[in-house]
Structures are given as structure tokens and as C-alpha cells.
Amino acid sequence: MMLPTLVVALLPALAAVLYQPTATQSPLNNELTSKDIVLFVTAHPDDECMFFAPTILGLQSIAQPPDIHVLSLSFGNADGLGETRHKEFQSSLDVLGIPEGHKHILDHPELQDNITAKWNPEIISNLVSFYVNQHNITTILTFDRRGVSGHLNHKSIFHGVRRYAQSRTVPPKLYALISVPTLTKYTSILAPVQANVDLYGMRLWRRVDTAALRVLRSLGIVEEEKKIALPNPMPVFVSGVNQFVTAHKAMRAHWSQMVWFRWFYVLFSRYLWVNEWQEILS
Questions:
Q1: How many CB atoms lie within 10 A of CB 233?
Q2: Which of 27, 151, 159, 210 could lock onto 121 through a cystine, CB 3.0 to 4.6 A?
């Protein structure tokens, strides 16, 4: 009898935790302004919503949102559906709030959708350079070296973008989406709950740390000008329910890809709820 009562009592708290989007106070979302221009570099149409939706939507909700561009390096033509997927890419980005002129998709002969093929990092570097220069990009976001799903095309993008950054004296800031283990990847609604608990715990710890420092100063144990430097937290974006629904709608715009295992993905994937980023220093 106690268990059902406890569950009912916890439901409002769970709903409150899930309803609002949250994010760490990191340089990725705390220092960007309307003067910044962000480029998401993806491999295929549907990557933008399968993996990056929490960040795309999260960046649009900050006080001074940056301009956001999305670049897909292929039409996703592995099954001969390239033109269809091109149109779906446009529709998905409409749902995610990306305006015309900020949606970019390529059909390069050396960058064709193929799960067994590594893409040439030099070609990727040159293409990224072109878009960075054309649109004055200040921040690039893409896959990490493991490519989230392990897809070789995803992994290749990391190496190509990093090569571009290493070739520049002052490159844009570069962030890679952190790949998590397979079991963690499919934690569904538990992912935002855990992430929010971590974020709220981190904020509470910082407040406790600040209060403790004030007490130490008042007792003369710590010099007045002495400051304890806390490291910048990992950039994390956690979608609320509305953002999750938007990401789900964007994914359904890729109707040609909605086979049974993709339905499993959109129901259980952590990446429709939570994005965690690592800055890659060139």
C-alpha cells in the first residue's frame, strides 16, 4: 500500500524536474551572444535531431541566442533515397527553428553515406573551412572520435574538423558531443532525471562552497582577496518535455527512416533528452 502512495506523491516532483529545460553555466551557453555564429557539422540528414536537438533548442532559448547553422556533409543516399532525405532534412530543421539560409547539405562524391567507409579528413577540413569563412563561424559543434553511434562517417567528421582547427592560428571554438556507453545511451526518461539531479546538485554545491568561503573570510582564516577558482562545468543541455516533443516531431519529418529500430531509438535514446560536450583544444 505504501509503494503506490509513494509513487503518486513523487509524480508531481518528477513532472517538475522534467518540464523545464536546464543547462550548466558553461562557456558554451554562458558566453555565447547574438554576435556569435554556431555551426553544427553532421554526417547525414536526421543526425541533427537524433543527436543534437537538445543543444540546438537549448541555444535558441538563452538570453542572447547565437545564429545557428547546420551542415550535413551528405544526402544520406545509402539506400538511393538522397533526394527524399534532402527534403526531409529541410523539414526537420524547420521544426527545430533553423531559418532558410542556415541549412546546408552537400552531395560530395567522396563523402557518400556508407557505414563501412572512412571519409577523407582533408576533404572535410576544406569544406568546413569554406563554411566557416563564408558565414564567420565562431563555434563548431560535431561528433567526438567515437561518433556516438560508432558510424565511421561520424568518426571521420571529428578527425576532419579537428584537422581544420589545427591548421588555423585562431580557429573557432570546437566542441565534441560525448559518446556514452550503449546501455547508458538507451536510458530514456531516466536520462534527464539523472542529469537534472546532477545539475541541481552541482548548483547546490557551488552555493555551499560560496557560503563556506564567506564564513572562512569572516573568521580570518582566508584572506579577503583570496578566491577559490572553481573549474568550468562540462557543457550539458537537458531538454524539457516540450523540447523532447519538438525533437520527436523533427525526427518524424525523416519519415523514410522511421523503420522499427528508429522508433525504438526515438522512444529510448538519451540523446533526444541530454547532450554533454567536451571542448577540443587545437
A1: 17
A2: 159
| Calpha distance 250→42 (Å, rounded) | 15
pTM exceeds 0.90 for this model: no
132: which 3 cell numbers?
566557416
Nearest-angstrom CA–CA distance, 58 and 38: 13
User: In the 8-state DSSP scheme, what is residue 140?
Assistant: E
| Tally of CA atoms within 13 A in the half-sphere of 153 that contains its CB | 20
**pLDDT tens per residue, range 53-99:** 999 999 999 989 999 999 999 999 999 999 999 999 999 999 999 99
- The alpha-helical segments, DSSP class H, found in the chain are 2-19, 27-30, 47-50, 53-60, 82-95, 121-135, 152-166, 182-185, 190-218, 241-252, 260-268
| 67-72/37-42 β-pairing | parallel
| Amino acid identity at 81 | L
State the pLDDT at residue 24: 79
CA distance 28 to 235: 6
Q: Are 236 and 26 in contact (CB under 8 A)?
A: yes
Q: Give 42's DSSP letter.
A: E
Residues 6+ apart with CB under 8 A from 174: 139, 140, 142, 161, 162, 165, 279, 280, 282
User: C-alpha 56: how far from its chain's center?
Assistant: 7
Candidates 171, 169, 143, 170; CA nearest to 158 is: 143
Cα–Cα nearest to 59, from 94, 98, 91: 98
CA dihedral (215, 217, 221, 227) positive or negative:
positive
